[in-house]
């Protein structure tokens, strides 16, 4: 912490994600389908935010914009000071690989790779040696309590275990941001509770910033803050 902060009570740290007047529509043939209109939102570093709203309200679209998977039509979108809306396609892919960890509803693991190999995959694009990769993979697999399953293939793991492999894969590059789209949507209540507890721990103990889209009020309760999308507009949550 700098002395500036101590002496200036009005100081606010820069939000990790800063969104201003973001708009997005999709083209379907000759038609334009507006999805998000005028979204303004700040997400602080270290937050665990749940993004809720009815089906079709634009939650995944907003998540994909923040994660640099898709591009806005207009507005500002900065993540850790980088104007990601303005990055050319090739730089955006590099930015995503370095800064965003993804967790999906259906895990998206490679079926022909073991748990270990799935987690190692994002590191194959880095300059780390095989030994350095091994140390990191084993460390994150221990973090998600799966060190004893590293040689298993996804088909040999339960849904909850597969999602833990996916969490390990999301963590392996030490990303700036973790985005999770319905991470408990395919799990029974017990496994969902376990996954949510794990995300809470990553947030509280490892300081990871997490943005989670969910339909489930139980999942949203695990988050620190809540925003609600309706028809492409953001409403403040009750917390
Ligand atoms: N690639 C696309 N092309 C055209 N329309 C799209 C595309 N992706 C999303 N849409 C439309 O944008 C709207 C918002 O979709 P989005 O997936 O963001 O909603 P959501 O709130 O995440 O919904 P759900 O909770 O059902 O997953 C929907 O009407 C959808 O049909």
In CATH terms, what is the fold-level topology? Rossmann fold
Number of domains: 1
Helix-strand string = HEEEHEEHEHHHEHEHEE
Helicity range = 25-40%
Sheet of most strands: 6 strands, mixed
Number of helices: 8
User: Which stretches of 5+ consecutive residues score pLDDT under 50?
Assistant: 1-6
Average predicted confidence as pLDDT: 92
What molecules are bound to this protein? adenosine-5'-triphosphate
Protein name: ABC transporter ATP-binding protein
Keywords: ATP-binding, Cell inner membrane, Cell membrane, Membrane, Nucleotide-binding, Transport
GO molecular function: ATP binding
Description:
This protein has helices at 3-7, 59-66, 89-99, 115-120, 130-143, 159-171, 189-206, 217-221; strands spanning 17-28, 31-43, 48-52, 74-79, 82-83, 100-103, 177-181, 209-213, 225-230, 233-236. 33% of the residues lie in helices and 26% in strands. The chain has a 6-stranded mixed beta sheet. Strands 2-1-4-5 form a 4-stranded antiparallel beta sheet, with helices on one face. The chain has one domain (3-236): Rossmann fold, CATH 3.40.50.300. The longest helix is centred in the last third of the chain and has 18 residues, at 189-206. A hairpin with a 2-residue loop joins strand 4 (74-79) and strand 5. It starts with a helix and ends with a strand. By secondary structure, the chain is an alpha/beta fold. The relative contact order is 0.18. It binds adenosine-5'-triphosphate (ATP). Residues 26, 28, 33, 35, 53, 55-61 line the site of adenosine-5'-triphosphate. It comes from Cupriavidus campinensis. Residues 17-239 form the ABC transporter domain.
